[in-house]
Amino acid sequence: MKAITQIKEFKEGSDIRGFFLCVEKHLRNTRSGDLYLDLVLRDRTGQITAKLWNDINELQDKFTVGDAVVVAGQVDVYLDKLQLNIKKINVASVQSYGRYGYDPGLIVPSAKSDAKQMWKEVTLYIKKIKNNFLRTLVTSIYRKYETQILTHPASVVMHHNYRSGLLEHNLSMAKIGLPLAEHYKVDMDLLMTGVFLHDIGKVKEITSELEASYSDEGNLIGHIVLGRDIAVEAAKKIKDFPPDLLKKVEHLILSHQGQYDWQSPKKPKFREALLLHLIDNLDAKMNLMEKAVEEDVEEGKWTSRRNYFRIPILKDNLENEDNGSK
Amino acid sequence: MKAITQIKEFKEGSDIRGFFLCVEKHLRNTRSGDLYLDLVLRDRTGQITAKLWNDINELQDKFTVGDAVVVAGQVDVYLDKLQLNIKKINVASVQSYGRYGYDPGLIVPSAKSDAKQMWKEVTLYIKKIKNNFLRTLVTSIYRKYETQILTHPASVVMHHNYRSGLLEHNLSMAKIGLPLAEHYKVDMDLLMTGVFLHDIGKVKEITSELEASYSDEGNLIGHIVLGRDIAVEAAKKIKDFPPDLLKKVEHLILSHQGQYDWQSPKKPKFREALLLHLIDNLDAKMNLMEKAVEEDVEEGKWTSRRNYFRIPILKDNLENEDNGSK
Amino acid sequence: MKAITQIKEFKEGSDIRGFFLCVEKHLRNTRSGDLYLDLVLRDRTGQITAKLWNDINELQDKFTVGDAVVVAGQVDVYLDKLQLNIKKINVASVQSYGRYGYDPGLIVPSAKSDAKQMWKEVTLYIKKIKNNFLRTLVTSIYRKYETQILTHPASVVMHHNYRSGLLEHNLSMAKIGLPLAEHYKVDMDLLMTGVFLHDIGKVKEITSELEASYSDEGNLIGHIVLGRDIAVEAAKKIKDFPPDLLKKVEHLILSHQGQYDWQSPKKPKFREALLLHLIDNLDAKMNLMEKAVEEDVEEGKWTSRRNYFRIPILKDNLENEDNGSK
Amino acid sequence: MKAITQIKEFKEGSDIRGFFLCVEKHLRNTRSGDLYLDLVLRDRTGQITAKLWNDINELQDKFTVGDAVVVAGQVDVYLDKLQLNIKKINVASVQSYGRYGYDPGLIVPSAKSDAKQMWKEVTLYIKKIKNNFLRTLVTSIYRKYETQILTHPASVVMHHNYRSGLLEHNLSMAKIGLPLAEHYKVDMDLLMTGVFLHDIGKVKEITSELEASYSDEGNLIGHIVLGRDIAVEAAKKIKDFPPDLLKKVEHLILSHQGQYDWQSPKKPKFREALLLHLIDNLDAKMNLMEKAVEEDVEEGKWTSRRNYFRIPILKDNLENEDNGSK
Amino acid sequence: MKAITQIKEFKEGSDIRGFFLCVEKHLRNTRSGDLYLDLVLRDRTGQITAKLWNDINELQDKFTVGDAVVVAGQVDVYLDKLQLNIKKINVASVQSYGRYGYDPGLIVPSAKSDAKQMWKEVTLYIKKIKNNFLRTLVTSIYRKYETQILTHPASVVMHHNYRSGLLEHNLSMAKIGLPLAEHYKVDMDLLMTGVFLHDIGKVKEITSELEASYSDEGNLIGHIVLGRDIAVEAAKKIKDFPPDLLKKVEHLILSHQGQYDWQSPKKPKFREALLLHLIDNLDAKMNLMEKAVEEDVEEGKWTSRRNYFRIPILKDNLENEDNGSK
Amino acid sequence: MKAITQIKEFKEGSDIRGFFLCVEKHLRNTRSGDLYLDLVLRDRTGQITAKLWNDINELQDKFTVGDAVVVAGQVDVYLDKLQLNIKKINVASVQSYGRYGYDPGLIVPSAKSDAKQMWKEVTLYIKKIKNNFLRTLVTSIYRKYETQILTHPASVVMHHNYRSGLLEHNLSMAKIGLPLAEHYKVDMDLLMTGVFLHDIGKVKEITSELEASYSDEGNLIGHIVLGRDIAVEAAKKIKDFPPDLLKKVEHLILSHQGQYDWQSPKKPKFREALLLHLIDNLDAKMNLMEKAVEEDVEEGKWTSRRNYFRIPILKDNLENEDNGSK
Fold first, then answer.
1. Out of B132, B281, B319, closest to residue C326 by CB
2. Is D269 within 8 Å of E312 when comparing Cβ atoms?
């Protein structure tokens, strides 16, 4: 099979083969009345208009918007822009096309670290929870939702909004949560339980097949309340789970956004809850500034103002500094 | 037994007997080293300092702050203010002192209408819900929490914050909800379910023995989420309760405050939810203006600015108007 | 005469005849130096660029931006988009073209109910005002401004912003105002007067020939103050109109937006004024959610966030629910 | 007659005579059942409790709250504070007691400059308006409301809230308005008309017999709209007053607060209106800072934070500076 | 040399010569693989796409984005729009092309008054400062930064954002500061020092070669703090500059924006600081309204809402008014 | 010498000796005309009124408001409250009365850890800064301001507002800054420099002899700008300090409050600055919740709402939980 070509490498006249996310799909008529498919395809390097003129009947139901597709075709120019004339198209999955090079990471952004490696690290952190009730609670929930936790983003448009972003965010918070809990002498087990469960409702709120979007439950109920449900239901299955301890876990989840404006129905009312919120906020903001720099397309040392912070961010060092190291 | 005297009728030197709410209770030493109880008592007409000098050992554990008490004593003047010297004191309840005239309405403010009469009316409205699932849901919940619904306030410091205020608020909303649902052609059953269940979490959030305050659950989880719990648990016991219908009921409860600032984790996302929020807001505001006028102590036509609205409210007609009626 | 073709039915090459709103009109030179008219036309189904190449001198002054026009022409394609080559064009009015099918409702959105029918209903509600002064006040004003009330929108870009929207809004508020006034035991006559007069200033604020926009008076003084003027002037002509009653009517109009941010110079200071504001707000919000759903172009159950509420709205039922009706 | 004693000069045991504002008046019973009057009196130097024990029947209706009173009595001490035992009391006015030294300025704060002198200056500024319509408009209004303009405060609790404060504020704005209008090349006549009329509604909004408070009209309609009424009515009596010029004057008054939050139903929409608002704001803020310093009671160079600005204000020079003048 | 043609005068087919600002510059390949330059040029009258096909190697490094360029070329039409085919291009400066008609005012907007004339006026105002320390302070700073003060804008996107805007703003403030300082009896020297130095940090914050943008210092430290630095450093060089006087000058600069939201780390704490802030605000707002009218492109009497004030502004007189002048 | 008695241990009739902060001091006349001193004294356990009747001439100038005083006297009761009759009084300092038990910690709140011990730890952290320029910068500043850093609070009324609070806050931030800098891969030296210098301006902003208050510099310039001054001046004395590195240090200090509302003239614009702000905020919030619990005087599990967070905080565990530890 031919090599994979990414969108930014497309040239007029070249034949290409590649994997893309189908982001628009319209069945239209040519002026002569024939049917054709008018598509928009995207991969991690760019986006392009594509047309499918032939075999419409056969091919049009093979895929839909939101699918990963494998495509062969030829690049030409229309109204001064590149477009792709598709010859063959099919839905792509790791099962069917993995051996031909398909990887979701080609078409949607992903966390930088490997999801399985991160999962292992998270598992070690969970084992450090000494309180049996809490450790069992977190363990049972992570076992149940392992598949989703491995791939879900932490949000749709904000921080860690990429494949495995939720896992990355939780792991990052665990790493900093440990020394902070110790420093502020809060209940470490409670804090770590909060770290691992605060966003667990995202696995129900966000439908995450390549393009993240909100589920009905997500729209109507939201991840904060859905996450608390997951905790309450799992606790019910653990014999003698102390009710007051459960109330604290519920509060950790409900208050983790820290303020009403961010859809938390409660503000943090004890130290572990406050620290959880502060760590969550800190990890999210650090991620957002990293993203602001990475996604910026301006020339020069400063990003544009079009980012979460609405200010220019310094992209690199002002100069090569003499750091005067010993 | 002697007639009941209310605080505003106290006169220097008179012997009184009455029922009061104990709002403060301190065990102190006289300068000569003897123990005495320093109390603050309140009824619907006022508040007074009271002292108990004798039989401390015997009497001091008979009651605590927040209790209704039956008291006999004598009024005198200390530092230019009336105070009560207590001779006898005991905790009061409807069971033990009802026949001697005790009624919680003597010592805490209550809804103007009779709670049992309001309950009957509410029952009739619930019967109008045609959808079997929803009617059964509301009925089973009202049956379970009947005792609390009969006496709970609708809030601690805001609207309908008096005995049976929750019931009064729900009934008021039902009465206006019916014509509004019809006018706007929304699903009447869904709206009425929202009316009866939107504040049901208050029965867990507010501890309401005479002095309303927040329970641990209320502080940590809040009435919005607790109310949804009540609905979800009741629905589980109803065979074949449609899951999508339940999601809507959950959303009705979660979004009824209408905005994040007021601790709703979701804003209304369909017409019944929006109308529920608007009716709730309308009924609360009308109640708050009524309270602002009733509680004002200024002379003249206008209240002071010390009310929910932070503006002077017109207390009565500007003049006796010639209304020119036919 | 040929049948009317609406813009969404235009096809390349077809000859059409139709009624449109002229939304842009520019006199330009072709590269060869000849004059032509470059227009944008709109009807309820869409918008199109149009060119008029001939008889410029004769035709260019026959109509202006904001006019309804009757057009005959041919559809062709330019730079990959449809455009209309106009052969004949003239200004259209119900008087001259009504019999050929012209109706303002073809080119601008209108209330769903018939304006004359709504007017009749409003008249009946006005008759229910028992206070002679108030009934005479409302009647005289509605008589004077009948023409405008029949066609004006209730706003330029917000709720009920379509032909006869003001009338629809007033009628809707009257229908719900009646039971609400009764329930809250407020002065029904005063409330209904407020309902019918609160937005009456819109007839001076908004110039409403097809495209609603603000008059000089609207820009400089605003409908709230203009509406009060209308009430004050009408009251002057009513013998012995009680001055304090008039002050209340003035306050109803001035405070109906309910908060300073929404350009009310006063907040509601008595119960009828508060209820008027709450009903106005309720009716506007219900209309805005209805519009948000109707105007949404997204596929799926949820609207986009591009609406008044800035959240996705549920467009239809989640599923065909088993409603378990008896 | 004896010399006048001001409250801050009161000493235990001394006999005094003076003029005061009666700010509280309660008819009460002594413990032995006799009637007495319990009063609070105030003058520019302080406030004191006063008791009237004798001749109640005769004296109690001679004055009411808000009246200026002439009092003779003796100072004693009760519960460690000074109080005044009244022997004689009567209502005081300039007519009846002016020759004995009564002056409203003794009991309520007043502008520093003499009202009549300020009135003369204002008159000269009005004469500088060249446009006949506008000059006649302002002149006729000032003639009609001369009495009130001479004594009204510019606000109840904010800037220039003292006797003749409105006049002082208008004069101050006129003085700076002249050079500013010239500098920014705006229509001087329009601006000066705005200066003199922007707050004219205060003469109806504020009832100003010694203690400023809001009239019914003030509460229900407000000075902004009432002021525009005054302008519109006066313009009607001026032959051929140009309607567009009147609309501008109306807008000047309606928009002078500059933002909706401050109860202006319109924001300034032309340069004269914007400049009027900016001058009004500037003059008010300068007055508020002056007041903050004058009214502060802290020791040291800095005021407390309890002022309009919510920050400490520097009261005097940091040190005696060497200014290095030539 | 040929006459200069401005962009709005370009016609298809004509040969032109002119001065422009290069706002975009991309080196691209034609489909046949040859290099060409794809540019966007701008002058005060418009903007156009330009192509340079020949002598790329020689010409491409002669200029960069942000440069003023002198261009000769021919206008043609591509995809229905005018574009310029460049024959010759070079960087332009007053030194090299001034005698051929180059003036920065041709390509970027400038203050209406002549910079040198304004400088002279400013100098006279500075001389009016009587306090030797303050006059020397301002004089030394203006001498040092004369070049920048002559050309800097007062902001990048807000008020006076054009060539010499800073100087224009300072002069305007000085003109109104004089009568205002006198009227409010504040320390005139201190106020005028504030007028001349409040924005002096802009000379370091804004890099202003034709296209204004922020320097690294501007981004990291900001003009408020940079301006104070300039004052502090200059004062150090003045013998015996009184430290408390310097603190006041520092506060004038730090607090001139008047509120934290506008990046002032302090609010005005004495009368001169408050007045400086109010004058600065007044002059900026008047300038912004003037700009809003000048930059508006709507037909009719009213601007669009797309301006600083977010409301329509009245562009001219409502009508030709009869002003009734004597 | 007699034992020290703290205010909460005072009893009627007892003779006491102790150290107190003099918080009010007024010279008054008795009714018989003799002079006496009316004082308010405070220590860490409470506050009391005190009178000094004798030897006024000799004693009145020995101390002033804000001084620590050593007092001998007798407790009696006046108007039902305890007060202290002073026999001897003198100003107290560690030098003169340390050996008799005086310690500032008796009369003002202090950090829990010993200041000298914290200083040692801070010194070790400073040594970990590898960059010579930065380490030298921090070291020289801490050497210069050692005395103030040892005793200053971190704020007047907010977090760490007690003796040595600034040192405690800096040390706490250093401890958590180290692992966080490592985790987020930011420049550790830059972050730690920010940690140690971000609040250094407090040593000039706050005058801190027992009662913290603002200096003139603090009021006019503020700790953020004053702190940057300290850094800039110290850097000037370090040979070849890289200018771009200094700009970053300046930005760290200027932006550490994170938002304009909190008086930072810049928001954080690179990762170290953002992390510094987040750590500062986190440490302050954790301290504020600890204080809210410690300072609460309510009975029961929950604090009142009168704290920084405006919500009830859970003071202790809900119950003794079975934590199910292994």
1. B132
2. yes
CA distance B162 to chain F (A): 21
DSSP state of E306: -
pLDDT in tens, F62-83: 898 888 999 999 999 887 789 9
Q: Pick from C195, C252, C212: which is nearest to C228 by CA?
A: C252
CB B70 within 8 Å of CB B92: yes
Locus of tokens 């509280």: D24
Residues 6+ away with beta carbon under 8 Å from F91? F62, F63, F67, F68, F69, F70
Q: Tell me the chain A residues in contact with residue F282 when contact means C-beta distances shorter than 8 Å.
A: 180, 275, 278-279, 282
Is the pLDDT at B322 greater than 70? The verdict is no
Q: Tell me the β-bridge partners of D28.
A: D36
Answer yes or no: do A216 and C318 touch at CB < 8 A: yes
Cα-based distances in Å from D247 to B221, C129, C300, E301: 56, 34, 50, 15
pLDDT at B33: 75
pTM to 2 decimals?
A: 0.90
Closest C-alpha among D233, E296, D249, D185 to residue C220: D249
* F219 shares contact with chain D (CB less than 8 Å): yes
Q: Which two tokens stand for residue E63?
A: 């200029």
E282 sits in which H/E element: helix E271-295
**Would you say residue E2 has pLDDT above 80?**
no
Residues 6+ apart with CB under 8 A from A57: none
Residue C248 forms contact with B (CB below 8 Å): yes
Task: In whole angstroms, give the CA distance from residue F58 to residue C53.
Answer: 107
What pLDDT score was predicted for residue F200?
97
Fill in the DSSP letter of residue C20: E
Q: Within a 13 Å sphere around the CA of F320, how many CA atoms are in the beta-carbon half?
A: 0
| Span of A50-54, A165-169, A275-279 with lowest mean pLDDT | A50-54
Least confident of A19-33, E11-25, E106-120: A19-33
pLDDT of C175 reads 97
Minimal Cα distance from A300: which residue of E? E216
The DSSP secondary structure of B151-178, one letter per residue, reads H--S-SSSTT-SBTHHHHHHHHHHHHHH
- Give the Å distances, CA to CA, from B82 to B7, B13, B17, B37, F135: 10, 10, 16, 17, 70
Residue C250 touches chain D, beta carbons under 8 Å? yes
Tell whether B264 is within 8 A of chain A (Cβ). Answer: yes
Does residue A230 surpass a pLDDT of 50? yes
Cβ atoms A216, C318 nearer than 8 A: yes
CB contact B98 to A (< 8 Å): no
Q: Which two tokens stand for residue D311?
A: 């920050």
Residues of D in contact with C227 (CB under 8 A): none
Beta bridge partners of C40: C24, C49
| Contact in structure between A249 and A231 (CB atoms under 8 Å) | yes
What digits encode the pLDDT tens for the residues F271-321? 999 999 999 999 999 999 999 999 887 778 999 998 999 999 999 755 444
